[in-house]
Write a structure and sequence with these properties.
109 residues, alpha+beta, Alpha-Beta Plaits, 28% strand
Length: 109
């Protein structure tokens, strides 16, 4: 089992943040299916102000390249990602168009 932690910022607009949260209370079924087909077994997203934190648990055969290929081939996923850009913004230091940024583990108990 693999675990990944990623982060992203939302636009600093309370109405947009609330809309984003509401979308994630009712994620499109095609999106959920695509996530599972990519090999992800569990995903959680947390929000503090404009900062998002995502935890992904996936099987040993999961990789982000495979997920990206599945995402590109799925029009519903592309529609979802386009919609999400309404709410999201790039983190400082990210490349243009990069969304979720991988975090480095710095401590384990």
């Amino acid at each position: 089992m693999q675990k990944f932690c990623l982060t992203l910022d939302l636009k600093d607009d309370p109405q947009l943040i609330e809309e984003y949260i509401q979308h994630h209370k009712n994620v499109w079924p095609e999106i959920l299916l695509n996530i599972r087909l990519s090999g992800i077994s569990d995903m959680e997203i947390y929000c503090f102000g404009t900062r998002l934190f995502m935890i992904i648990e996936a099987g040993d055969d999961f990789n982000f390249e495979k997920k990206a290929t599945l995402d590109q081939a799925n029009q519903k996923v592309q529609d979802w990602e386009t919609l999400m850009w309404k709410y999201q913004q790039c983190l400082p230091g990210s490349k243009p168009g990069e969304k979720w940024m991988m975090m480095d583990k710095i401590f384990t108990l």
